[in-house]
Amino acid sequence: MGNILRATDNPVPSGFGSTSTAEQVTQGIDASGLTVIITGGSSGIGAETARVMALRGAHVIIGSRTTAAGLAAESLKQSILQDTPSARIDIIYLELNSQDSVRDFTDEFLSMNLPLNILINNACVMRCPFKLSEDGIEMQFATNHIGHFLLTNLLLPKIKRTAAETGIEGRIVNLSSADHLTTYREGIRFDKINDEAAYNDKLAYGQSKLANILHANELARRLKAFLSSKSRITYISSEQFTTPKHFHVQQEEGANVTANSVDPGLTKTYLGRHSTISAAEIRAITTCFLWKKSIPQGAATTCYVALHPSVKGISGKYFADCNIEKTSAHGRNEKLARKLWAYSEVSTARTISVIVV
User: Fold this and answer.
1) Percent helix, strand and coil across the chain, each rounded to 5?
2) Burial call 212-244: b when 16+ CB within 10 Å, e when fewer
3) Residues 6+ away with beta carbon under 8 Å from 194
Protein backbone atom coordinates (compact mmCIF):
# COMPACT_ATOMS: atom_id res chain seq x y z
CA MET A 1 0.00 0.00 0.00
CA GLY A 2 2.99 2.25 0.51
CA ASN A 3 3.20 2.95 -3.23
CA ILE A 4 -0.44 4.04 -3.41
CA LEU A 5 -1.47 5.46 -0.06
CA ARG A 6 0.70 6.65 2.81
CA ALA A 7 -1.84 5.87 5.53
CA THR A 8 0.78 5.17 8.14
CA ASP A 9 -0.14 3.64 11.50
CA ASN A 10 3.42 3.81 12.79
CA PRO A 11 4.04 6.46 15.46
CA VAL A 12 7.81 6.02 15.18
CA PRO A 13 9.01 5.72 11.55
CA SER A 14 11.72 3.14 10.99
CA GLY A 15 14.11 5.47 9.21
CA PHE A 16 13.79 3.39 6.05
CA GLY A 17 11.45 3.88 3.10
CA SER A 18 10.56 2.98 -0.47
CA THR A 19 14.11 3.49 -1.78
CA SER A 20 15.80 1.39 0.90
CA THR A 21 17.29 -1.94 -0.18
CA ALA A 22 17.35 -5.28 1.60
CA GLU A 23 21.08 -4.90 2.25
CA GLN A 24 20.61 -1.44 3.73
CA VAL A 25 17.85 -2.42 6.17
CA THR A 26 19.91 -5.38 7.45
CA GLN A 27 23.27 -3.61 7.59
CA GLY A 28 25.17 -4.64 10.71
CA ILE A 29 22.72 -7.40 11.69
CA ASP A 30 24.30 -10.74 12.56
CA ALA A 31 21.94 -13.57 11.59
CA SER A 32 24.46 -16.36 12.12
CA GLY A 33 22.88 -19.14 14.13
CA LEU A 34 19.46 -18.45 12.63
CA THR A 35 17.62 -20.74 10.23
CA VAL A 36 15.14 -19.24 7.77
CA ILE A 37 12.75 -20.91 5.35
CA ILE A 38 11.78 -18.91 2.26
CA THR A 39 9.09 -20.20 -0.07
CA GLY A 40 9.50 -19.27 -3.72
CA GLY A 41 13.11 -18.34 -3.10
CA SER A 42 14.42 -19.17 -6.56
CA SER A 43 13.67 -15.86 -8.30
CA GLY A 44 12.59 -12.26 -7.83
CA ILE A 45 12.02 -10.93 -4.33
CA GLY A 46 12.41 -14.40 -2.82
CA ALA A 47 15.85 -14.84 -4.39
CA GLU A 48 17.04 -11.45 -3.16
CA THR A 49 15.68 -12.22 0.29
CA ALA A 50 17.59 -15.52 0.29
CA ARG A 51 20.79 -13.80 -0.87
CA VAL A 52 20.66 -11.12 1.81
CA MET A 53 19.72 -13.57 4.55
CA ALA A 54 22.72 -15.72 3.58
CA LEU A 55 24.92 -12.62 3.42
CA ARG A 56 23.98 -11.84 7.03
CA GLY A 57 24.90 -15.39 8.08
CA ALA A 58 21.55 -17.18 8.26
CA HIS A 59 21.14 -20.80 7.19
CA VAL A 60 18.70 -20.45 4.30
CA ILE A 61 16.25 -23.16 3.25
CA ILE A 62 14.66 -22.42 -0.12
CA GLY A 63 11.32 -24.02 -0.92
CA SER A 64 11.31 -24.29 -4.70
CA ARG A 65 8.68 -25.59 -7.11
CA THR A 66 8.98 -27.42 -10.45
CA THR A 67 12.08 -28.54 -12.32
CA ALA A 68 12.72 -25.14 -13.90
CA ALA A 69 12.45 -23.31 -10.59
CA GLY A 70 14.64 -25.97 -8.99
CA LEU A 71 17.35 -25.30 -11.56
CA ALA A 72 16.99 -21.57 -10.91
CA ALA A 73 17.31 -22.18 -7.17
CA GLU A 74 20.47 -24.25 -7.70
CA SER A 75 21.90 -21.52 -9.92
CA LEU A 76 21.06 -18.95 -7.23
CA LYS A 77 22.75 -21.10 -4.60
CA GLN A 78 25.95 -21.29 -6.64
CA SER A 79 25.87 -17.55 -7.26
CA ILE A 80 25.48 -16.82 -3.56
CA LEU A 81 28.27 -19.24 -2.66
CA GLN A 82 30.55 -17.56 -5.17
CA ASP A 83 30.01 -14.19 -3.47
CA THR A 84 29.69 -15.56 0.08
CA PRO A 85 31.64 -18.85 0.36
CA SER A 86 30.55 -19.35 3.96
CA ALA A 87 26.84 -19.23 3.05
CA ARG A 88 24.66 -22.16 4.11
CA ILE A 89 21.86 -22.87 1.65
CA ASP A 90 19.66 -25.92 1.13
CA ILE A 91 16.93 -26.43 -1.47
CA ILE A 92 13.85 -28.55 -0.82
CA TYR A 93 11.17 -29.23 -3.42
CA LEU A 94 7.89 -27.50 -2.59
CA GLU A 95 4.73 -27.12 -4.66
CA LEU A 96 2.42 -24.99 -2.55
CA ASN A 97 -0.70 -25.84 -4.55
CA SER A 98 -0.26 -29.47 -3.47
CA GLN A 99 -0.95 -30.25 0.18
CA ASP A 100 0.92 -33.55 -0.18
CA SER A 101 3.98 -31.60 -1.35
CA VAL A 102 3.68 -29.20 1.60
CA ARG A 103 3.60 -32.16 3.99
CA ASP A 104 6.57 -33.79 2.23
CA PHE A 105 8.54 -30.54 2.44
CA THR A 106 7.82 -30.29 6.15
CA ASP A 107 8.86 -33.89 6.77
CA GLU A 108 12.12 -33.40 4.88
CA PHE A 109 12.95 -30.19 6.72
CA LEU A 110 12.17 -31.67 10.13
CA SER A 111 14.35 -34.69 9.33
CA MET A 112 17.32 -32.29 9.01
CA ASN A 113 17.05 -31.64 12.76
CA LEU A 114 17.64 -27.92 12.37
CA PRO A 115 16.20 -25.08 14.44
CA LEU A 116 13.69 -22.79 12.74
CA ASN A 117 13.76 -19.10 13.61
CA ILE A 118 12.10 -17.41 10.64
CA LEU A 119 9.46 -18.51 8.13
CA ILE A 120 8.94 -16.25 5.12
CA ASN A 121 5.82 -17.14 3.16
CA ASN A 122 6.93 -15.45 -0.06
CA ALA A 123 5.80 -17.62 -2.98
CA CYS A 124 2.88 -16.41 -5.07
CA VAL A 125 1.04 -16.77 -8.37
CA MET A 126 -0.80 -13.81 -9.86
CA ARG A 127 -3.91 -13.43 -12.01
CA CYS A 128 -3.68 -16.86 -13.58
CA PRO A 129 -6.52 -18.44 -15.60
CA PHE A 130 -9.05 -20.39 -13.56
CA LYS A 131 -7.79 -23.80 -12.53
CA LEU A 132 -8.29 -26.07 -9.54
CA SER A 133 -5.38 -27.52 -7.62
CA GLU A 134 -5.07 -31.27 -7.11
CA ASP A 135 -6.87 -30.68 -3.81
CA GLY A 136 -9.80 -29.04 -5.61
CA ILE A 137 -9.05 -25.45 -4.60
CA GLU A 138 -8.81 -22.46 -6.95
CA MET A 139 -5.14 -22.11 -7.86
CA GLN A 140 -4.42 -18.59 -6.61
CA PHE A 141 -6.11 -19.24 -3.26
CA ALA A 142 -4.49 -22.68 -3.02
CA THR A 143 -0.96 -21.40 -3.70
CA ASN A 144 -0.97 -17.98 -2.11
CA HIS A 145 -2.92 -18.78 1.05
CA ILE A 146 -3.94 -22.39 1.69
CA GLY A 147 -0.48 -23.86 1.01
CA HIS A 148 1.16 -21.29 3.28
CA PHE A 149 -1.50 -21.79 5.95
CA LEU A 150 -0.78 -25.52 6.04
CA LEU A 151 2.99 -25.04 5.92
CA THR A 152 2.87 -22.55 8.79
CA ASN A 153 0.70 -24.79 10.95
CA LEU A 154 2.95 -27.80 10.35
CA LEU A 155 6.11 -25.83 11.16
CA LEU A 156 4.73 -23.79 14.05
CA PRO A 157 5.65 -26.32 16.78
CA LYS A 158 9.27 -26.24 15.56
CA ILE A 159 9.32 -22.41 15.48
CA LYS A 160 7.87 -22.19 18.98
CA ARG A 161 10.26 -24.83 20.31
CA THR A 162 13.26 -23.07 18.77
CA ALA A 163 12.20 -19.75 20.31
CA ALA A 164 11.73 -21.36 23.73
CA GLU A 165 15.08 -23.17 23.62
CA THR A 166 17.16 -20.29 22.27
CA GLY A 167 15.39 -17.29 23.77
CA ILE A 168 15.40 -15.73 20.28
CA GLU A 169 12.07 -14.45 19.02
CA GLY A 170 10.63 -16.49 16.16
CA ARG A 171 9.18 -14.54 13.25
CA ILE A 172 6.65 -15.44 10.57
CA VAL A 173 6.31 -13.09 7.60
CA ASN A 174 3.52 -13.29 5.01
CA LEU A 175 3.98 -11.45 1.73
CA SER A 176 0.76 -9.70 0.86
CA SER A 177 0.18 -6.80 -1.53
CA ALA A 178 -1.61 -3.50 -2.00
CA ASP A 179 -3.82 -5.61 -4.28
CA HIS A 180 -5.63 -6.77 -1.14
CA LEU A 181 -7.59 -3.54 -1.68
CA THR A 182 -8.97 -4.98 -4.93
CA THR A 183 -11.04 -7.95 -3.89
CA TYR A 184 -14.66 -9.05 -3.87
CA ARG A 185 -17.15 -6.86 -1.99
CA GLU A 186 -17.38 -9.43 0.83
CA GLY A 187 -13.61 -9.58 1.09
CA ILE A 188 -13.47 -13.37 0.80
CA ARG A 189 -16.29 -15.27 -0.89
CA PHE A 190 -16.11 -18.54 1.00
CA ASP A 191 -19.00 -20.09 -0.91
CA LYS A 192 -17.58 -19.24 -4.36
CA ILE A 193 -13.81 -19.61 -4.04
CA ASN A 194 -13.82 -22.66 -6.31
CA ASP A 195 -16.63 -21.50 -8.61
CA GLU A 196 -15.37 -20.99 -12.16
CA ALA A 197 -18.49 -19.11 -13.23
CA ALA A 198 -17.92 -16.49 -10.54
CA TYR A 199 -14.14 -16.27 -11.07
CA ASN A 200 -12.38 -13.00 -11.77
CA ASP A 201 -8.60 -13.39 -11.95
CA LYS A 202 -7.86 -9.89 -10.60
CA LEU A 203 -10.35 -10.03 -7.72
CA ALA A 204 -9.34 -13.61 -6.88
CA TYR A 205 -5.72 -12.48 -6.62
CA GLY A 206 -6.75 -9.63 -4.31
CA GLN A 207 -8.78 -12.11 -2.27
CA SER A 208 -5.71 -14.32 -1.79
CA LYS A 209 -3.57 -11.32 -0.78
CA LEU A 210 -6.21 -10.25 1.72
CA ALA A 211 -6.08 -13.80 3.08
CA ASN A 212 -2.33 -13.42 3.68
CA ILE A 213 -3.00 -10.39 5.92
CA LEU A 214 -5.89 -12.00 7.78
CA HIS A 215 -3.86 -15.19 8.31
CA ALA A 216 -0.99 -13.24 9.90
CA ASN A 217 -3.38 -11.22 12.06
CA GLU A 218 -5.25 -14.25 13.35
CA LEU A 219 -2.05 -16.21 13.89
CA ALA A 220 -0.66 -13.30 15.92
CA ARG A 221 -3.78 -13.34 18.08
CA ARG A 222 -3.66 -17.10 18.55
CA LEU A 223 0.00 -17.02 19.56
CA LYS A 224 -1.13 -15.00 22.55
CA ALA A 225 -4.01 -17.24 23.61
CA PHE A 226 -4.39 -20.98 23.98
CA LEU A 227 -7.86 -22.02 22.86
CA SER A 228 -9.81 -25.11 23.77
CA SER A 229 -12.88 -26.26 21.88
CA LYS A 230 -15.94 -27.85 23.42
CA SER A 231 -16.73 -29.73 20.23
CA ARG A 232 -14.78 -31.92 17.85
CA ILE A 233 -15.62 -32.08 14.14
CA THR A 234 -14.71 -34.89 11.79
CA TYR A 235 -13.84 -34.22 8.16
CA ILE A 236 -16.20 -32.02 6.14
CA SER A 237 -15.52 -30.51 2.75
CA SER A 238 -14.94 -26.79 2.29
CA GLU A 239 -18.19 -26.63 0.31
CA GLN A 240 -20.05 -27.71 3.48
CA PHE A 241 -18.14 -25.23 5.60
CA THR A 242 -19.76 -23.50 8.56
CA THR A 243 -18.01 -21.75 11.44
CA PRO A 244 -17.98 -23.71 14.74
CA LYS A 245 -19.01 -21.44 17.61
CA HIS A 246 -18.31 -23.40 20.81
CA PHE A 247 -15.09 -22.21 22.39
CA HIS A 248 -13.55 -20.45 25.35
CA VAL A 249 -10.20 -18.83 26.11
CA GLN A 250 -8.41 -21.08 28.57
CA GLN A 251 -5.04 -19.47 29.32
CA GLU A 252 -2.24 -17.35 27.96
CA GLU A 253 0.34 -19.29 25.98
CA GLY A 254 3.01 -16.62 25.78
CA ALA A 255 4.72 -18.01 22.67
CA ASN A 256 7.81 -15.98 21.74
CA VAL A 257 6.80 -15.85 18.07
CA THR A 258 5.43 -12.96 16.00
CA ALA A 259 3.44 -12.95 12.77
CA ASN A 260 3.20 -10.00 10.39
CA SER A 261 2.34 -9.29 6.76
CA VAL A 262 4.19 -7.09 4.29
CA ASP A 263 3.63 -5.30 1.00
CA PRO A 264 6.82 -5.40 -1.11
CA GLY A 265 5.53 -2.68 -3.43
CA LEU A 266 5.29 -2.69 -7.20
CA THR A 267 8.43 -4.54 -8.26
CA LYS A 268 9.57 -5.82 -11.64
CA THR A 269 9.43 -9.60 -11.28
CA TYR A 270 8.13 -12.63 -13.22
CA LEU A 271 5.02 -12.66 -11.04
CA GLY A 272 2.78 -10.85 -13.50
CA ARG A 273 3.28 -13.31 -16.36
CA HIS A 274 -0.44 -14.25 -16.37
CA SER A 275 -1.72 -10.68 -16.08
CA THR A 276 -3.91 -9.39 -18.88
CA ILE A 277 -2.55 -5.85 -18.42
CA SER A 278 -0.41 -4.90 -21.40
CA ALA A 279 3.19 -3.78 -21.10
CA ALA A 280 2.18 -0.34 -22.38
CA GLU A 281 -0.47 -0.04 -19.68
CA ILE A 282 2.03 -1.03 -16.99
CA ARG A 283 4.52 1.59 -18.24
CA ALA A 284 1.80 4.25 -18.31
CA ILE A 285 0.61 3.45 -14.81
CA THR A 286 4.16 3.39 -13.51
CA THR A 287 5.00 6.72 -15.13
CA CYS A 288 1.86 8.50 -13.98
CA PHE A 289 1.27 7.20 -10.47
CA LEU A 290 3.63 4.66 -9.08
CA TRP A 291 7.24 4.46 -8.20
CA LYS A 292 8.41 1.07 -9.44
CA LYS A 293 10.94 -0.62 -7.20
CA SER A 294 14.02 -2.60 -8.05
CA ILE A 295 14.12 -6.15 -6.70
CA PRO A 296 16.56 -5.21 -3.88
CA GLN A 297 14.12 -2.47 -2.87
CA GLY A 298 11.17 -4.86 -3.17
CA ALA A 299 12.84 -7.30 -0.77
CA ALA A 300 13.65 -4.62 1.81
CA THR A 301 10.41 -4.73 3.82
CA THR A 302 10.51 -8.52 4.05
CA CYS A 303 14.09 -8.50 5.32
CA TYR A 304 13.37 -5.62 7.68
CA VAL A 305 10.41 -7.37 9.32
CA ALA A 306 12.25 -10.71 9.43
CA LEU A 307 15.52 -9.47 10.95
CA HIS A 308 15.54 -5.93 12.27
CA PRO A 309 15.70 -5.56 16.08
CA SER A 310 13.26 -2.63 16.06
CA VAL A 311 10.48 -5.02 15.02
CA LYS A 312 10.98 -7.17 18.13
CA GLY A 313 7.68 -7.89 19.86
CA ILE A 314 5.56 -6.38 17.09
CA SER A 315 2.93 -8.81 15.85
CA GLY A 316 -0.26 -8.74 13.80
CA LYS A 317 0.79 -5.69 11.79
CA TYR A 318 1.00 -4.82 8.10
CA PHE A 319 4.21 -3.24 6.81
CA ALA A 320 4.93 -1.31 3.62
CA ASP A 321 8.15 0.54 2.80
CA CYS A 322 9.55 -0.78 6.11
CA ASN A 323 6.90 0.96 8.20
CA ILE A 324 3.61 -0.10 9.76
CA GLU A 325 0.62 0.95 7.68
CA LYS A 326 -3.14 0.54 7.76
CA THR A 327 -4.85 -2.08 5.63
CA SER A 328 -8.29 -1.99 4.08
CA ALA A 329 -11.28 -2.38 6.39
CA HIS A 330 -11.41 -6.06 5.39
CA GLY A 331 -7.79 -6.43 6.47
CA ARG A 332 -8.74 -5.25 9.97
CA ASN A 333 -11.85 -7.43 10.25
CA GLU A 334 -11.26 -9.86 13.12
CA LYS A 335 -14.45 -11.82 12.46
CA LEU A 336 -13.41 -12.36 8.84
CA ALA A 337 -9.94 -13.48 9.97
CA ARG A 338 -11.42 -16.06 12.33
CA LYS A 339 -13.77 -17.38 9.68
CA LEU A 340 -10.87 -17.65 7.22
CA TRP A 341 -8.86 -19.63 9.77
CA ALA A 342 -11.68 -22.10 10.28
CA TYR A 343 -12.24 -22.44 6.52
CA SER A 344 -8.52 -23.01 5.96
CA GLU A 345 -8.33 -25.59 8.72
CA VAL A 346 -11.17 -27.54 7.13
CA SER A 347 -9.57 -27.22 3.69
CA THR A 348 -6.22 -28.64 4.84
CA ALA A 349 -7.41 -31.46 7.09
CA ARG A 350 -8.05 -35.10 6.38
CA THR A 351 -9.58 -35.74 9.80
CA ILE A 352 -9.82 -32.60 11.88
CA SER A 353 -10.62 -31.06 15.18
CA VAL A 354 -11.52 -27.44 14.47
CA ILE A 355 -10.71 -24.81 17.09
CA VAL A 356 -12.17 -21.41 16.39
CA VAL A 357 -12.94 -18.22 18.26
Assistant:
1) 45, 15, 40
2) bbbbbbbbbbbbeeeeeeeeebeeeebeebeeb
3) 132, 136, 137, 138, 238, 239
User: What tens digit of pLDDT does each residue of 45-85 get?
Assistant: 999 999 999 999 999 999 998 767 778 899 999 999 999 99
Q: Which value, in Å, is the radius of gyration of the alpha carbons in the chain? A: 19
| pLDDT tens profile 247-258 | 333 334 568 999
Q: What is the pTM of this model?
A: 0.86
199 counts as catalytic: yes
Dihedral sign, Cα of residue 212, residue 217, residue 223, residue 226: negative
Q: Are strands 170-175 and 226-229 parallel, antiparallel or unpaired?
A: unpaired
Tell me whether strands 118-121 and 247-251 are parallel, antiparallel or unpaired.
Answer: unpaired
Task: Single out the catalytic residue among 93, 184, 199, 343.
Answer: 199
